Amino acid sequence: MHIHELNPWRTLIALSIFVIILVIGFLTMPKPQLTFEKSISESVDALEESEAYFYPWQLEDIINDKPDNVVLFDIRDNFIFGQGHIPGAENLSANVLSQKDNIERMKELRDMGVTVVLYGEDELQANGPWMLYRQIGFNNVKLLKGGYSYFKAHKDDLASTKNDEGYKTGLPRYDYAKMAAPKDGAALNIESENKPVQIRRREKTNVAAGGC
Amino acid sequence: MSKDKVISDQPKYINPYLGGVLLGLLIIVTVFITGRGLGASGSIKSAVVTTSSTVAPSATKANSYMGQFISDDHSPMFNWLVFESFGVLLGGLLSGLIFGRVKKFRTDHGPKITSKKRWVIALIGGALFGIGSQFGRGCTSGAALSGSATFALGGVIVMFGIFGTGYVIAYFFRKLWI
Amino acid sequence: MGPLIPNGIIGEGWDFVIAILIGIAFGFILEAAGFSSSRNLAGVFYGYNFVVLRVFFTALIVAMVGLMYFDYFGWLDLSKIFILPTYVTPMIVGGVIMGLGFILGGYCPGTSFTGIAIGKLDALFFTIGLYVGIFGFSLAFPLFEGFYDSGALGNVTLTDVTGIPASYFALAFTIVALAAFWGTMVIEKRVRKNMKQYKF
Amino acid sequence: MNRNYIFLTILMIILAAGTVFLTMDSEPKQIEPEELLQEIIQPTRYVSTDQVAKMIIQGDPSLMLVDVRSEEEFAKYSLPRSINIPIKNLLSDGNLGYFGVPGTKVVFISDDDIKADQMWVFVKRLGFGSTYVMKGGLNCWMQTIIDPERPSDDAPYKDFETYTFRKGAQMYFTGAGADVPDASKIDVLVRRREKTNIASGGC
């Protein structure tokens, strides 16, 4: 006795429609332009690799020889770039980094084996974009230690920066514990004794603000 | 040979696998649109709460179980599952009309029992199912099917509970059906 | 994108219209697949008609697999959908009682509605029974209120409990279901040799 | 006819097996690279040492300082109420539970700002908001809060305000019972001006 239709051709049609929907899903799925190639923990470890950084004294060769296999990208904005930059650097402002043609350009450079050096005003500014590029698989992207400000201060004698500690980061510059130890009031107030007011010409407006 | 001919003249049910695929797609669509699966027993619960609160409003509110389904804004019948169950009735009718199965009132029963006995047993079975569905947070369609399809642990427990028990005790009730 | 209503893509006002449409489709499929006859349904336990097993498990695996693909395509956010809360012991007890009710009554709530729609009196009695059962449950609820809420695990999925990815469950269910389909085909043939025809 | 059933069976197994490969790449939740890049180029994540000092002094309960230096360095000196999560331990010991708590602001601190910024990028990649980097790090903290430099006498008034605040903060953090150099100015601090730009002299 057969009270149910036994021929499965309609089932086949129904399942085929299902498969077609799934195929459409695959085809229309927004394909991410970028994907993370390194997991978080891999990226954490990768921060230690010294080949991921570019050192100020290495700039000397770049400026003099202009090799084809290294490109300098200045990620500051166009206006500041115009006021001064490392010779031979190209401007690639941070806010256009994610534009499609710039990503394409980075991919081309990677495929050609060109080293890309990112720098900003200081090391911090380029740190984020550099980390992102490393995480999405651009292992040719390096970060200029010290940034533009360090370069500017030492541009006449880059070779000697090899032995300089000034651009290094992640180091305590003070003995925190000693410095922050409780002091007695007298010690604190020595420097703040009122000096006679002298009218001087200020060299810079924000000297007093005590930037780091 | 002649017997087969008689059967082939009769309206057939669709291929069970076709029904399954369609039902699966329907669950996907339901989850896609509403974010939850199908259900059936919930509408009966709404009906119980509604009649109970119409007959004895204060007693119903005081009941710790039914009380939680009463809200002051609207009747418990104004519920997704009630509308869905109404649709199930319509859909069943539609299918019955199309395939020619809507006939005068009749009863399915095993060859060894009478219609009257079948009614009593159906009533008891329904009552048990009603109690069980409250413990299980849903019936075959709500908990076992939609629950399992969304990988809920509870759905799988209910599914194995129903079918497992069914197979274990089927032997003792064979007179009802075969 | 989905689920559409919780994400506000379809307004709340459409909720009940959609409910009726989904219900119609549900009822149509159940009836057309033969779920409006209690003898068809009960057949799964006696080996003469495995329509319940076939429809149920086909639907289950199609839905499971489909939902996973939909999630992957970004069409449906599986983390936003309703997950049935789990209460271990009440659910086991409930499942056992429902199994008993299934054997006796020959229907489950959804299928009994379609049975009523085409004029089955036993389906009507089953539905009345459901009503009586739930009403009785409500009245007696204070007796087992503690039990009703025992073993609560919250809205957990299989993955939450076991740590195994959902896709492995989908694959396992699919393989088991397909094996069951082929197995029951053989069983059904054997059992039916000794059976009398029944009308539907 | 049986051939069709075999075909259906195989199709279904392929579909189900396909799901196993889908979920491979969606491990811990993280934001898309484009989104991360958009966040990275925003300078809004930097807070000055003055802002941090002010929040500590005011006892802002929403502030959580996370020191990303090594454990030894943290043991030697740390800011009050700060907790230590070295970058390497970010994913371990349930450290992620510190982030994404509604209503809190997480500020990362390291010797200078590079390590803290790196931590920020990782935490951001994991999708947590309300995270900041203390610009200049502890070196700047020493320079500006612990040992502030007196502005020259003809410096703008604002610099003096900053200096006065820093002097007050110095006493708070070093625990020195110093004479208030200019009592009237300290009053200004006590009044808790919400909108003044104490960050003017920054790192």
Task: Write structural notes for this entry.
The complex is a heterotetramer of chains A (212), B (178), C (200) and D (203). By secondary structure, chain A is α/β, with parallel strands linked by helices. Chain A is 39% helix and 8% strand. In chain A, strands 1-5-4-2-3 form a five-stranded parallel sheet, covered by helices on one side. The longest helix of chain A is centred in the N-terminal third of the chain and has 20 residues. The C terminus of chain A is likely disordered. The N terminus of chain B is likely disordered. In chain B, helix 3 crosses helix 5 and helix 7 crosses helix 8. Chain B is mainly α. Chain B has a domain of 103 residues. Chain B has nine helices and no strands. In chain B, 67% of the residues lie in helices and 0% in strands. Chain D is an alpha/beta fold and 203 residues long. Chain D folds into two domains: 109 residues, Oxidized Rhodanese, domain 1, CATH 3.40.250.10; 44 residues, no CATH class. In chain D, helix 4 links the parallel strand 2 and strand 3. In chain D, helix 3 crosses helix 7. Chains A and D meet through helix 1, helix 2, helix 6, helix 8 and helix 9 of A and helix 1, helix 2, helix 5, helix 6 and helix 7 of D.
The neighbouring-strand order within the major sheet of chain C is: 1-2
What best-fitting shape of chain D do the alpha-carbon axes yield?
Answer: elongated
Rg measurement of chain C, Å: 19 Å
Q: What name is given to the CATH topology of the largest domain in chain D?
A: Oxidized Rhodanese, domain 1
List key phrases describing it.
heterotetramer; B: 178 residues; mainly alpha; 9 helices; 0% strand; globular; disordered N terminus; D: 203 residues; alpha/beta; Oxidized Rhodanese, domain 1; 2 domains; 5-stranded parallel sheet; elongated; disordered C terminus
Write the layout of secondary structure elements.
The complex is a heterotetramer of chains A (212), B (178), C (200) and D (203).
Chain A: H1 9-28, H2 40-46, E1 53-54, H3 59-65, E2 70-74, H4 78-83, E3 90-91, H5 100-111, E4 115-119, H6 123-135, E5 141-144, H7 147-154, H8 176-179, H9 185-190
Parallel strand pairs in A: 1-5, 2-3, 2-4, 4-5
Chain B: H1 2-9, H2 16-34, H3 41-55, H4 57-62, H5 80-98, H6 115-135, H7 140-149, H8 153-170, H9 174-177
Helix pairs in contact in B: 3-5, 7-8
Chain C: H1 15-32, H2 38-46, H3 51-73, E1 86-87, H4 88-105, H5 109-117, H6 121-140, H7 145-148, E2 152-154, H8 158-162, H9 166-193
Antiparallel strand pairs in C: 1-2
Helix pairs in contact in C: 1-5, 3-9, 5-6
Question: What's this model, at a glance?
Answer:
With 212 residues, chain A is of the alpha/beta class. Helices cover 39% and strands 8% of the residues of chain A.
